[in-house]
Amino acid sequence: MSAPAALASPFDLADDAAYRAWRGRKLASAPTFSEELVVEVTDPLRLTAAERAAIVERCQRANMAVYATAPQTGHGSEVPRAIGAQLGLRTLDVNYLADDDGITPLAATDDGPRSGYIPYTNRAIRWHTDGYYNPPERRIRAMILHCVQRAEAGGENRVFDHELAYIALRDANPEFIAALMQDDAMTIPARSEEGEVARGDQSGPVFSVDADGRLHMRYTARTRSIAWKFDPAVHAATAQLLQLLDHDPRVLRLRLEPGMGIVCNNVLHDRAAFTDSDAHRRLVLRARYYERVQTA
Ligand SMILES: [Fe+2]
Questions:
Q1: Distance CA 66, CA 41 (A)
Q2: What is the pLDDT of residues 272-288, one digit of tens each?
């Protein structure tokens, strides 16, 4: 008996027809303005069918949505937890710096074990996807950033759908994609930015295709605590990626106000430096999940 024909994948470099069809649909539906991502939510603990559908629709189009609740509803980890659960996000990635419930408060702190890591400072964080240093069995496919309090100034996020990054790179040169799909394209030393204690160096691809056929991306624009493969093709591809993250018109800017949050399939994002005041001390709750946002 012959094996069943493999399903066409847009991420197969040998299948240009599948790529062109997917690319056309993706570009036609990609949002132009960050306002298109926003869904007003009355009670985050109980989304209406229409609210949930609106969030899911944006995640299908753009791999991300922004929910906006009234500021007074957004003070506890129950909000991102409930939003996630209603979107099929159930398995939280827990690291030793997280609170016991697996949802991590991100705020500038002067002391304690967190103070040595950039997310817990008021400094800018360069482009990355979350958990790029995780081993494959703890791959982060979705995450939520929920704003409890904004900074006095700064702290905005830029976001970029990783599928659009894939398209920009493949259109520029398919060799960029081949280079970044190599299993040893990127290596993270055993101990990394957020104090994760890994079993050893984590080597892996930047782009990979999950069992469900969806594209996954591991990336950081950091230059410390990361070793790129010594390969001219990888060097050229990462240089091109950095260039497009700074210049692509589809990069969106978000300023989360209290009660707002982003839920996404771990898209590329960064964070601007910020300044706190007594009235506005930035606090963002972060939840990372192994599942993608459920679209059914
Ligand atoms: Fe992040």
A1: 10
A2: 999 999 999 999 999 99
Quote the ligand 1 centre to 129 CA distance (angstroms).
Answer: 6
Query: In degrees, to the nearest 5, what angle opens at C-alpha 105 toward C-alphas 100 and 107?
Result: 145
Strands 260-264 and 153-154: unpaired
Tell me, in angstroms, the distance from the centre of ligand 1 to residue 132's CA.
Answer: 9
pLDDT of amino acid 19: 98
CA dist., res. 198 & res. 220, Å (int): 17
- Residue whose token pair is 């990355």: 128
Q: What is the pLDDT of residue 7?
A: 76
Q: Separation of 3 CA from ligand 1 center, angstroms?
A: 41
The alpha carbon of 241 and the centre of ligand 1 are apart by a number of angstroms equal to 17
Q: For the chain, how many residues are written?
A: 296
CA distances from 35 to 38, 40, 183 (A): 5, 11, 37
3-state secondary structure 23-64: HHHHHHHCCCCHHHHEEECCCCCCCCHHHHHHHHHHHHHHCE
> What's the whole-model pTM score?
0.93
Predicted confidence (pLDDT) per residue in 87-109, tens digit: 999 999 986 655 557 898 899 98
Residue 18 CA, ligand 1 centroid: distance in Å: 31
Q: Tell me how far the alpha carbon of residue 269 lies from the centroid of ligand 1, in angstroms.
A: 6
pLDDT beneath 50: ranges in the chain: 1-3, 198
10 Å CB burial of residue 156 (0-12, 13-18, 19+) is middle
